[in-house]
Design goal:
- With 288 residues, the chain is an alpha+beta fold.
- It has two domains: 133 residues, Urate Oxidase; 129 residues, Urate Oxidase.
- The chain contains five helices and ten strands.
- The longest helix has 17 residues.
C-alpha cells in the first residue's frame, strides 16, 4: 500500500496584538486576533522530514507584530489583505494563504463636563461588550477573496414576536404564543463581490440594516427573521454576494406566578442558557 498526502496546511493561531494610533490630540486603540494557515509545496516536509521549505509558525507570529507596526489598521480586511500578500511575496513555496481576523471593539469614554454635557475622552476607552468584527481573507497568486462578519451581536425585542402553528406530537409541551421575547446572540458572515471596498462603511451599513430590520418586523419564527435580515442586507448592499446568519434562540421563559395567586402578564421571565435552539441560513442573490 502507498500512502499519499492528499491535503496539507499549517500555520499559527490566536496571534493577538494591540495597537495605539497616536495623533496630536487623540489616540485610537485597536485589538486584533489573527489565525494564519498556509498551503503550498510542503509534501517533502511531511513525507521526508525535510524542513527547508518550512516558514516557522513563530516567524508567522512575529510577522503579524511587525506588519502591525508598519501598516495601517483602518480595517481588519485591509490589514489582512496586506498581510496575506506579504506571505505570498516572500515565500515562493506558498500557494494559498488563509487568514481569519477578529477585532475586539473599544469605544471612547464619554467624560462629563461642567455644563452636564459630555465629550469623548481622547485616550480613555471602555469595552464595547462581546461584539467582534471579523474577516476571512483567502489569497492565492491568482485570486483574492474577502469575507467579513460580526460575532456576538446580542439583540432582544420584548414583543412583535410569536411562535404558532408548528408540529405537535406526543412529546410536545411547548405552548403557542403570539407575544414573546425574541433574543439572539447573532453571528453573521458575508462574502463580497470584490476586494476594493470601503469595508468599514459596508460593515456599519450591514449592522444598522440588521438592527433596523430586526426591530421593525413581526417575527413568526427565528427562521423567518433570518431570511428577512439576509434579504434586507442584500437589497441595501450591492457589494455583498451572500450572507450567512446563525441565530441561537436565547430563551426567556415566563415564570409561573399563578401558584402565588398572581397573574403574569408577560412581565416576569426566567432567562435560560441551555438547552437552546440554533437556527441558521444563507441568503444569496438569485441568478434569475
Amino acid at each position: 500500500m502507498q500512502t499519499v498526502l492528499s491535503q496539507n496546511s499549517y500555520g499559527k493561531s490566536a496571534v493577538r496584538f494591540a495597537k495605539i494610533i497616536r495623533r496630536p490630540h487623540e489616540h485610537d486603540f485597536k485589538e486584533v486576533a489573527v489565525n494564519i494557515q498556509l498551503e503550498g509545496d510542503f509534501e517533502s516536509v511531511y513525507t521526508e522530514g525535510d524542513n527547508r521549505k518550512v516558514l516557522p509558525t513563530d516567524t508567522m507570529k512575529n510577522t503579524v507584530y511587525a506588519h502591525a507596526k508598519t501598516h495601517a489598521l483602518d480595517s481588519v480586511e485591509e490589514f489582512g489583505k496586506s498581510l496575506a500578500q506579504y506571505f505570498l511575496q516572500n515565500n515562493p513555496q506558498v500557494s494559498r494563504v488563509q487568514l481569519e481576523l477578529a477585532e475586539k471593539l473599544w469605544q471612547r469614554v464619554a467624560v462629563s463636563k461642567a455644563d452636564e454635557s459630555s465629550t469623548p475622552h481622547p485616550h480613555t476607552f471602555i469595552s464595547a461588550g462581546n461584539e467582534k468584527w471579523t474577516s476571512k481573507i483567502t489569497r492565492t497568486r491568482e485570486q483574492l477573496l474577502v469575507a467579513s462578519g460580526i460575532e456576538n451581536l446580542l439583540i432582544l425585542k420584548t414583543t412583535d414576536s410569536g411562535f404558532e402553528n408548528y408540529i405537535k406530537d406526543q412529546y410536545t409541551t411547548l405552548k403557542e404564543t403570539n407575544d414573546r421575547i425574541l433574543a439572539s446572540d447573532v453571528n453573521m458572515q458575508w462574502r463580497y463581490a470584490g476586494a476594493d471596498i470601503d469595508f468599514n462603511r459596508s460593515r456599519q451599513t450591514i449592522r444598522q440594516t440588521v438592527l433596523d430590520t430586526f426591530a421593525q418586523h413581526y417575527s413568526y419564527s427565528v427562521q423567518q427573521t433570518i431570511y428577512l435580515l439576509g434579504q434586507a442586507v442584500l437589497e441595501k448592499c450591492p457589494e455583498v454576494l451572500e450572507v450567512h446568519l446563525v441565530m441561537p434562540n436565547k430563551h426567556y421563559i415566563p415564570f409561573d406566578l399563578e401558584r402565588f395567586g398572581m397573574e403574569n402578564r408577560n412581565e416576569i421571565f426566567v432567562p435560560t442558557d441551555e438547552p437552546f435552539g440554533r437556527i441558521e441560513g444563507t441568503m444569496k442573490r438569485s441568478l434569475r
